[in-house]
Amino acid sequence: MFEELRTFVAVAETKSFTKAAKKLSFSQPAVSQQVKRMEVFFNGATLLTRASLGGNVDLTKEGELVYKRCKEILALVDATMSEVTPHRATELT
Fold first, then answer.
1. 3-state DSSP call for residue 44?
2. Nearest C-alpha neighbor of 59 from the set 11, 3, 6, 7
3. 9: which of 18, 45, 83, 92 is 20 to 30 A away, CA to CA?
4. Gap between the Cα atoms of 18 and 41, Å rounded
5. SS3 71
6. How far apart are CA 14 and CA 75, in angstroms?
7. For residue 50, what is the enclosing H or E element?
8. Predicted model pTM
């Protein structure tokens, strides 16, 4: 699920499935599938809408909330990894 969270954040920040795919070294269909899984996970909520001009995507009200929480979750995971990884390396030596 963390991959979907990171992908959703990338789409939200780049406002583009294509740009997010390039940034993450994924195919555009893979990014679309991951965002779709996020929407299914959140009971079919629409998280993104296509902007009328330029083909960019915008966050819906629900998408803004999910984006905020994704950032918080990923920050906690990254912080935890930083805290755990040095201890684990020390234990193994």
1. coil
2. 11
3. 83
4. 22
5. helix
6. 19
7. strand 48-50
8. 0.84
